[in-house]
């Protein structure tokens, strides 16, 4: 049903649009698509991420579960490039990198980041890419 031209959409709160642009564009390398007084839209690894200006909705402390989002990389080299980018740009890490479910079919590498508004991002790469869904 989903075509390669389609994009998944996720919307999250932010306390400051400038800070969101700094983090997502100049930190993670997302492309700025549109900006309005109350929100900013990014091309986030081929999907649409919208940061809505809503300081009241920003959680005071970052918590990974149950709400987080990110990318499951099919190729290990893409995950490795992200780890290098995180280290080079000194992006804030919430936890990891780590190996989860070691020794099982669902074994995967993961890293959790925290953005300036305490939204948690998880990036991962399964040893067996068939298990990313």
TrEMBL record:
It comes from the Bacteria. Pfam families: Glyoxalase (PF00903). Residues 6-126 form the VOC domain. PANTHER family: PTHR39434, VOC DOMAIN-CONTAINING PROTEIN. This is Glyoxalase.
């Amino acid at each position: 049903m989903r075509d390669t031209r389609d994009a998944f959409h996720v919307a999250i709160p932010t306390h400051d649009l400038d800070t969101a642009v700094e983090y997502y564009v100049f930190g993670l390398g997302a492309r700025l698509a549109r900006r309005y007084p109350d929100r900013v839209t990014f091309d986030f690894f081929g999907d649409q991420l919208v940061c809505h200006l809503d300081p009241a909705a920003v959680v005071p402390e970052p918590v990974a579960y149950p709400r987080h989002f990110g990318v499951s990389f099919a190729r290990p080299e893409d995950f490795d490039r992200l780890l290098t980018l995180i280290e080079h740009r000194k992006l804030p890490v919430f936890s990891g990198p780590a190996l989860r479910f070691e020794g099982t079919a669902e074994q995967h590498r993961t890293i959790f980041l925290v953005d300036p508004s305490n939204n948690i991002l998880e990036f991962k790469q399964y040893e067996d890419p068939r298990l990313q869904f």
